[in-house]
Amino acid sequence: MKSKIKLARTAGILYLLIVIFGLIAQIFVRDHLVDYGNAHVTAKNILASEYWYRFGFISELLMLVCDVGVATILYILLNDTSKNLSLLSFAFRLTSITILSITALSHYAAISFLSNQDYLNAFNTDQLDAFALFSIKMHGVGYNICLLFFGIHLLLLGYLLYIAEIFPRYLGVLLFIGGICYILNSIVWFQFPLLVKYIYPAIIIPSAIGEWIFCIWLIVRGIKLSSNGNDS
């Protein structure tokens, strides 16, 4: 049906916005301003680019808003394929969104520690700088927790796409592999932290490729047409 194609393309556009806002928040803001080994330099960079740092927080919030839209649309599109699995997939993605929404507070907390408010006078500058960097590092912890749930979502979504008639099977395979990579990344990050530098970011490249291809497919095609030319 044409309505399903439009709905799928809407999900694709929202998915693209998720990628854009996510890149802004992480790559262009946090990774650009934060020196994860030096609290003083990090504080100096954030204060020198306070509005840009705040925009990173706004970008993350917008990313989460778009993600709720994607989660809902995918549930609608795949509900006919398997009501129970699509609901379970939606639940894991929504859990991931909820965790990251709470985690976003740690991004904002850093600027709060550096705000020079009177109630912070009990701490010296070095301590406040350390608190700011610590809060940003806690953002990384929360992000890896959320990726575990998101990885399980991708496993379920990949299977649903594989058995659904409205999507090509290779999309399901790509997302299933991406889900495994996200899960392994989180497990290694928490259980074997010394190994992270050997696997990251290589381990999440398959995940990124799968999600990018899925995003492009949604925007360009929406859903697959049946052999008789009608929408599946």
Written account of the structure:
By secondary structure, the chain is mainly α. Helices cover 79% and strands 0% of the residues. Helix 5 packs antiparallel against helix 6 and helix 6 packs antiparallel against helix 8 (205-220). The chain is elongated and about 65 Å long.
Helix percentage: over 70%
Oligomer: single chain
Structural class, judged by helices and strands?
mainly alpha
Low-confidence stretches: 227-232
Order of helices and strands: HHHHHHHH
Largest sheet: none
Mean pLDDT: 93
Distinctive features:
232 residues, mainly alpha, 8 helices, 79% helix, disordered C terminus
Q: Can you lay out the helices and strands and say which pair or pack?
A:
Layout: H1 2-33, H2 39-48, H3 50-78, H4 83-113, H5 125-163, H6 169-191, H7 196-199, H8 205-220
Helix pairs in contact: 1-3, 1-8, 2-5, 3-4, 4-5, 5-6, 6-8
In short:
The chain has helices spanning 2-33, 39-48, 50-78, 83-113, 125-163, 169-191, 196-199, 205-220. It has 232 residues and is an all-alpha fold.
